[in-house]
Backbone:
């Protein structure tokens, strides 16, 4: 029998590291966001007497000349072609770069940007311009850097006011350089870790990464690179603030042997297609077929997971999502990608980096907890009895959650779903799902009925209300109960009742053999459902 998810994660993991992975940071100048900011900048700060679009082009041309001058220092200037993969170009030039740190090359691309545009208007006795933000194609300069603290990174600078900036950094690469500085040996796994001589120290380093490290990187390089704003501009307060555009928080768990990772995904996909119900289970097939991974005779049109196929599981909510995949056939990577910080109740300021990392780590752990509990959902007789009858909890009457009742089972099926794992759920999130399972309209299954059901789930300890909000999270006990109810019904009772309706075997058999065969089949069904007897 294949090992369970719990057994694999408890007994067959050689290294487990949580770390910020990729970081995409926006840079913006707060004092250059509105048309009146532009007027103040050009007239009051730079001393121009007449605000005209003709003032903007020389500024862009000045930046272009500074970038062009880098060629004389031996720094390549690469014009990116349309749809060209920039990462592949960067990887090749990084391999050729012979210095421990520095500016590797500059990429130039014409890309759309929100910039200031002007429309001529006729004033009494003179011509004036009406300014607004418009979408325009302008040159974007990609400064590809090898940094002594961060390793490979890039800064993208827009060449036209208000000069938007983007940074791309990698937390794993930052951690690798801290390990090297401390003299700690490790083995890399792409942008992660396969092994480390001091795992505890490695985790401490990953936890130490802060907003100050990001800001230090930006300040260090923005003063060294060709920059659209002069030192005088920046001293006057026309400088960039940083905000979080996209952030990946990953948990990498390295299996002792690759086959254990395959066992993990086989169990997860098999166990959660009808219970956890992720939004997508994706099978990634190899781009090249070799002798060990030949293509199927009729092409890749099967749902069977075989050698050469990399499964991944996706849980999506609003703009953010969680992805779980088998990294380089060695490690389980559970990764929360934050595309909008508002999904986590936070603004985009770089100062919220640690707050968002903590929440990303919680989401990763919650997904793994749900997967573990789904295969270890045994209930004691006392716990089952408490659910089957009304009880008093904290002085309040908690209605029963009787196994087999249609409404109760619909609630339990919904608690098994992965949709609520990243951020919890509200009445209006789960109500349509329960109503659908009951075959009712939302008018028939009202918000008040949903409130009643949430109350008894909460009083029984199956869900927890997040303080200061109308959102709920499922407790560990709640996951265990929901999976137990769902598995017993979906995988034992329903197929069992169907089997009873089939015609009897016409061939007579001794009663002892029949009972032995029945016992073996029941044991097999229970094993397949991952339900064991209570100790």
Residues:
């Amino acid at each position: 029998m294949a090992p369970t998810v719990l057994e694999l994660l408890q007994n067959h993991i050689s290294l487990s590291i949580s770390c910020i992975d990729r970081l995409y940071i926006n840079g913006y100048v707060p004092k250059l966001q509105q048309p009146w900011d532009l007027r103040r900048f050009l007239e009051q700060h730079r001393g121009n007497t007449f605000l005209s679009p003709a003032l903007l082009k020389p500024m862009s041309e000045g930046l272009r000349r500074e970038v062009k001058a880098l060629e004389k220092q031996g720094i390549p200037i690469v014009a990116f072609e349309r749809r060209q993969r920039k990462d592949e170009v960067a990887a090749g030039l990084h391999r050729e770069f012979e210095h421990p740190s520095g500016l590797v090359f500059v990429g130039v691309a014409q890309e759309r940007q929100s910039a200031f545009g002007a429309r001529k208007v006729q004033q009494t006795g003179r011509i004036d311009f009406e300014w607004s933000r418009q979408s325009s194609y302008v040159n974007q300069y990609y400064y590809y850097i090898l940094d002594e603290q961060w390793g490979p990174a890039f800064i993208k600078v827009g060449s036209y006011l208000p000069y938007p900036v983007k940074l791309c950094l990698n937390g794993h690469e930052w951690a690798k350089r801290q390990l090297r500085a401390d003299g700690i040996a490790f083995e890399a796994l792409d942008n992660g870790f396969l092994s480390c001589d001091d795992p505890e120290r490695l985790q401490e380093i990953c936890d130490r990464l802060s907003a100050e490290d990001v800001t230090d990187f930006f300040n260090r390089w923005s003063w060294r690179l060709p920059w659209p704003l002069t030192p005088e501009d920046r001293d006057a307060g026309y400088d960039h603030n940083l905000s979080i555009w996209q952030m990946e928080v990953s948990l990498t768990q390295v299996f002792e042997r690759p086959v254990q990772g395959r066992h993990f995904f086989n169990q997860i996909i098999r166990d959660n297609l009808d219970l956890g119900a992720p939004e997508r289970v994706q099978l990634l097939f190899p781009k090249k077929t070799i002798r060990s991974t030949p293509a199927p005779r009729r092409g890749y049109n099967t749902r069977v997971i075989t050698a050469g196929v990399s499964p991944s599981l996706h849980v999506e909510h609003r703009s953010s999502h969680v992805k779980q995949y088998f990294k380089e056939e060695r490690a389980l990577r559970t990764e929360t990608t934050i595309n909008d910080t508002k999904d986590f109740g936070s603004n985009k300021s770089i100062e919220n980096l640690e707050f968002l990392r903590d929440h990303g780590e919680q989401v990763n752990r919650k997904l793994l907890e749900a997967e573990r509990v789904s295969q270890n959902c045994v209930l004691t007789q006392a716990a089952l009895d408490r659910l089957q009858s009304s009880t008093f909890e904290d002085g309040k009457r908690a209605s029963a959650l009787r196994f087999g009742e249609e409404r109760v089972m619909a609630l339990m099926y919904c608690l098994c779903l992965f949709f609520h794992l990243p951020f919890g759920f509200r009445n209006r999130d789960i109500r349509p799902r329960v109503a659908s399972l009951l075959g009712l309209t939302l008018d028939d299954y009202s918000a008040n009925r949903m409130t009643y059901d949430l109350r008894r789930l909460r009083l029984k300890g199956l869900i927890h209300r997040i303080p200061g909000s109308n959102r709920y999270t499922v407790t560990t006990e709640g996951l265990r109960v929901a999976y137990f109810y769902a598995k017993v019904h979906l995988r034992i009772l329903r197929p069992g009742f169907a089997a009873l309706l089939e015609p009897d075997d016409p061939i007579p058999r001794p009663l002892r053999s029949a009972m032995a065969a029945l016992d073996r089949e029941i044991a097999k069904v229970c094993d397949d459902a991952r339900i064991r007897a209570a100790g």
The radius of gyration is 30 Å.
